[in-house]
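Researcher: Here's the sequence for the chain we discussed earlier.
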Amino acid sequence: MGLAKTVRVSMVPRMDVFQGGDRSYKRITMHITVHIWDTALLCFALYIVACVSRVSGFTYGACMLHDPEQFGGRTKFFCYKKGLDHVPKNLPHNVTDIDISNNRIKEINTGDFKNFTHLETLNISYNSISYVEEGAFKDLIALKELGLRSNRLTRITKKFFLGLTNLKVLLLDNNNILTIENESFSVFHHLEHVKLSNNTLRDMASMQPIFRVQTLAEIHIPYNNISIFQSSEISNSSLRLKILNLAHNPLIIFRMHADIFPYLNTVDLSYCFSNRSLEWEVLNTSFFRNVKRLHMAGVNVSLERFNVILQTFNNSLVELTLSAVPLAKSLISYTCKIPTLTKLTLRDNNISSLKDTGLEKCFQLKAIDLYYNSLADLEDVFASLKNITSLQLGYNKFSYIPSMIQNISLLENLNFVFNRIERLDCSTFKTLNKLKTLSLYGNSINVMKDCVFQDLINLKKLYLGSNCIKYLRGAFKKGPAKLEHLELSSNSLASLNTDDFRGLKSLRTLVLNDNKINSIDNKTFDKLNSLKLLNLEFNKITDESLRPSVFSGLSNLSELYLQNNHILKAEHFPNPPFYHLKSLRVLSILSQRHHKKRSFFPSNFLLNLTNLSGFWAQNIGLKYLHYDIFKDNTQITELGLSGNDLTILSPDIFLPLRKLYRLYLSETHLKTLDFLVQAKLDHLYYLQVSNNQISSINDTIIMSLPGLRLLDMQGNTFTCDCSNAWFIKWVEEGNLTQVLAANTYECNSPPDLKQTKFLSVDVSSCSVNIEFSCYISSTCIVLLTLIISLIYNFLHWQIVYGYYLFLAFLYDNKKKGSHKPLGFQYDAFVSYNTHDELWVTSELLPKLEGEQGWRLCLHHRDFQPGKPIVDNIVDSIYSSRKTICILSQHYLESEWCSREVQVASFRLFDEKKDVLILVFLEDIPVYRLSPYYRMRGLVKKRTYLSWPKAGQDTRVFWEKLRVALGARRGFEEENSLQ
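Model: Thanks. This is the structure I predict for it:
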């Protein structure tokens, strides 16, 4: 039986019209049928809503559980470097990612990850794990990546990976693994990537269980103790392996006697062969027919042996790395004979000259990497290398750009980072019209003419950071027109002038941080219509440079970084500084260097930024925020105000921020969070108010934030008394809002509890048990509803009649107490239903009043207008000698007729006189009278008259009725007294 059932209510209106004098009375009776079990379910549902459906808190200590909304439907748990000595308990079973790396966990047991059937990534690297119980991972059927790096594992047992059938990535680097048991990897059906570097594996035979995995594509086993590599120890059949990394192993024998790696495309043998007596035996060069990348950095073997190794890969090699190789210069001429080779890396070889190396014959090369050498010039060696597209010359000794590069017309990527280049001339890059990326970072460039980059018509990325540039002097006035990224950080720029960037119409990113900029001319960025990101942090920019005219051309700017400058000294800007930046989404002004002198925020600073979604203003010395500072910023989702002096905040400040998702208010001297109650931050997900002076927090504050999922209140001055009882229970028993590091919170008062853990305070005596109260109240409601339903269904009419009987009793007593026994005004009061009015007016009235002369009281004729109906009924009955009840089916259903019978019957019992005459207009079975206890009793005890059926003589009926009415003497005498 579910809670989804609805309460069935049927409403059937029934109308009885009671007319009297000038008034009409209508009654609508609503018959409501309620199923008893549905009622119980409804009450139970109300209980659930009342006691359970509310914002509730919980904590994982210093760890953090991220909501799926933040990571595209993935639930991530992070507990990086938090001092854990065991796997956290009670994590939600729907978690998809767990990172508990860099802790002190020593073992993994079978219950640690029980029922985590949705977990896809598990990182327990950098712990002290030496023992993993068999079957510890058996429930992780969805796991795709397992990280066990940097632990103390020594052995992989047969059932170590039991259950990990869908694992794709296995990271076991930096352990002490010596033994891998047979069949230990047989569980894997999708494993592709294995890393076992820096273990104590001694031979390839010990890794045979790994190579049996049919889906294996990459295996990395650097830094082990493998001295012999023999294909026969691995497999006798073809494998699907694509990457084989054997770097940093003391190999002395390499034998390939079978074609077991037909799909291999990358081999890393770096720092493997340090013994010149290396035995290299590959029966057929076709065994490595698909290898395109070969890394042999640090290999120190004879030239002859080196040539033998290279011949093995001669058919397909595309990339070759010979970094830190003593014989590198001697090998260049041989590598040029490899027809398929297009990239040659010669890093860290202390090469000072490339003459007589044979490099000029490497016509097929497209990329050369000469990082970390001692080159100062390129001589004529590159004259014949017409196909070079990438030239990496960083960390050498160049003091200028060699003219030789002008011969490399196809060059697309040129890198001269961290050399000694001082100047750039107009002819430096004259012929490099194919160049797309130019890196000149970390040189001594101080002069650039306006013609330097004009020929680089396809340049998209230019890195000029960490030079000595003081002025741009229109260096980019003429382009490059296609430049998208320009970095000028860490120079000595003091000002930006109007023409400095005029030719960069395609620029999307401009990085100018860590300079000395203190002034910016109007329209400096006027032509940068495509600019998306402008970084001006760590400069000396003042309020005078924040003018609308400075930023007028940046119609598409979405990110602006102004942190660590000298702005916000002015109390008010003459004109809103960012008025034209309607596309701006992120604005950062944190950590202004004069922030201690600030007191409040200019009210028009953010005016017209209608698309702003992130605003960061930490550590700028704010003491006051104007109530309408964010009136134009209704799209803000992240707001950082930490590190200011905002002791008091008004809720009006936050009213425009209806979409606020993250709010940072740490170290702001806050003493209360009451402002949040009326701030209407329904979508707030993360609230950081750490390191403030908040002593208590109540349910009103929390309940005003229905979307809250992360709460950080570390470092506050909590009071450990009943004012925080609700908050303590909320943190301990909730399951919706995560309270970060709640286990570290400490009491600040009272003195006897100072430094006591906040959550350890006993608050059981502060209030009644809410859950128990909810249980008792809900139980009472359920029982009461069941009783009412039973009574309504089975005793409905008895209750109704009892109610009317009670009213009649009250009216009778009232009448006895207020009326003295005076004469009667009428011979009889006629009680009838309006459906029988035709019979009364056409039959009864003419006979009794017209022929026999009786005086009758009829409600439609004789009731006093304006007088309550009940009073009219009582007065009429007590003013009449008799009461004639005209009984029919309709009469039994009438509320007012029922009341008339009750009053008349009370008069009968009170006066002990025969005052009631019952006239049946139709046959009414006894069972129809059973619900009307009073009526049934009267019928049993008294004689009653029945109206003759059609065609029968009515004279007997009228005579009996006359006799029942009795003599008129009393009436005449009493009437004469009036």
